[in-house]
Amino acid sequence: MTTGTLYGVGVGPGDPELLTLKAVRILQSVPVVAYPATPQGSAQARDIAAQWLEGKREIPITMPCMLDRGPVNQGYDEAAVVIADELSAGHDVAILCEGDPLFYGSFSYLLHRLGERFPCVVIPGINSVSASAAAAAIPLITGEQRLTVIPATAGDEVIRQALLNSDSVAILKPGRHRPRLLELLRETGRTADTLYIEQASRPAERIVRRFEEIPNTPGPYFALFLVIRPANPNA
């Protein structure tokens, strides 16, 4: 019996109009969709793609909000079993992923568990870094410049070296780390290069262009810092 195809579908940063035409086509064609969800039932990726999910069989993948990888990995293990049953029955399954499926995407963990057993197609999506630069209408990198992308959970020295050695730095998911990141930005002399963006492309989008106006308190998860050294216009 022919198995179903596993699709990793990037749904973009939040604005439903930023789904690609291919993502929409796949969502219209598959009978089953899966997506990460909080224990309380919130599912950002599903919300983005909601208009294309009518009549689909849905598989919420409940992910605990904790740093301990044990329960998180268990959640992926359990979801992989359910999704494998659908694929083995010949049903195509689309796994929704905010942003791009393979750019810090949750789909990576299911691809690892299922990718060698079933046909797999990945539909790229617009990532949060690109969406934030677009929201601010500012070039990320030009010419020979270098871009470093780093999570806020990285240690101080790792972030410090990125700020010192890269032309542009995107620091993802600052959340409770925001005060620590502000101090590192001051220490490395990058305050004038810094933008802070929350909820890029979503109705609650907020762009803070003046460093001194960024709150020195914990902030939301769906945010990032863009630290961009101005390009030489004559280069």
Distance between the termini: 59 Å
Strand residue content: 15-25%
Residue runs with pLDDT of under 50 for 5 or more positions: none
H/E series: EHEHEHEHEHEHEHEEE
Number of domains: 2
Can you tell me the CATH architecture of the largest domain?
3-Layer(aba) Sandwich
Tell me the number of strands.
10
Could you estimate the helical fraction of the residues in percent? 25-40%
Question: What count of helical segments does DSSP give?
Answer: 7
Characterise the protein shown here.
By secondary structure, this protein is an alpha/beta fold. The chain folds into two domains: 6-123, 3-Layer(aba) Sandwich (Cobalt-precorrin-4 Transmethylase, domain 1), CATH 3.40.1010; 128-228, Methyltransferase, Cobalt-precorrin-4 Transmethylase, Domain 2 (2-Layer Sandwich), CATH 3.30.950.10. Helix content is 31%, strand content 21%. It has helices spanning 21-29, 44-49, 69-88, 107-114, 128-136, 156-165, 178-187, and strands spanning 6-10, 32-37, 57-62, 93-97, 120-123, 147-151, 168-172, 194-198, 206-208, 223-228. Strands 3-2-4-1-5 form a five-stranded parallel beta sheet, sandwiched between helices. It has a five-stranded mixed beta sheet with strand order 6-7-10-8-9, sandwiched between helices. Helix 3 (69-88) crosses helix 4 (107-114) and helix 6 (156-165) crosses helix 7 (178-187). The relative contact order is 0.16.
